[in-house]
């Protein structure tokens, strides 16, 4: 699974660094390096309400820093159960 966090200026102002850091910390915490990649992307011209995160280069979501943990568990919870 791959999460691409937008670091464009609008997303940056809305806290993309926080989202990026939280996702990286969670990957670390749950030792999911082999299965989850967290990377950055630039604005694709279609800004969203929160911080834009693209999942596997397909689905796009709008996140806030506070919602990042829940988002991670929703998407990666099944990977943790395999441990
Ligand atoms: S700045 Fe992030 S989608 Fe535009």
What report would you give on this structure?
This protein has 83 residues and is α+β, with helices and mostly antiparallel strands. The chain has a single domain (2-81), classed as Glutaredoxin (3-Layer(aba) Sandwich). Helices cover 40% and strands 24% of the residues. The protein is built from three helices and four strands; from the N terminus they run βααβββα. It has helices spanning 9-13, 16-29, 68-81, and strands at residues 2-6, 37-41, 51-55, 59-63. A four-stranded mixed beta sheet has the order 2-1-3-4. It starts with a strand and ends with a helix. The model has no long low-confidence stretch (mean pLDDT 95). FE2/S2 (inorganic) cluster binds at residues 6, 8-11, 43, 47, 52.
Annotation keywords:
83 residues, alpha+beta, Glutaredoxin, four-stranded mixed β-sheet, 40% helix, 24% strand, globular, binds FE2/S2 (inorganic) cluster
């Amino acid at each position: 699974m791959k999460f691409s966090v937008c670091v464009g200026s609008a997303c940056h102002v809305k806290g993309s660094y926080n989202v990026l850091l939280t996702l990286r910390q969670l990957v670390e915490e749950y030792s999911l390096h082999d299965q989850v990649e967290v990377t950055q992307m630039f604005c694709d011209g279609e800004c969203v309400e929160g911080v834009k995160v693209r999942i596997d280069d397909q689905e796009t979501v709008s996140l806030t820093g506070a919602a990042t943990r829940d988002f991670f568990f929703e998407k990666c919870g099944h990977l943790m159960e395999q441990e």
